Amino acid sequence: MKSSDMIKVSERIADNLVTRRAADELLEFVAAKRSKSVTLDFKGVSFMSRSFAHEYVTNKKDTGKTITERNVATRVSKMMSVAKKQGGSSHTGITSFAVAAERL
Question: In whole angstroms, what separates CA 52 from the centre of its chain?
Answer without folding.
Answer: 7
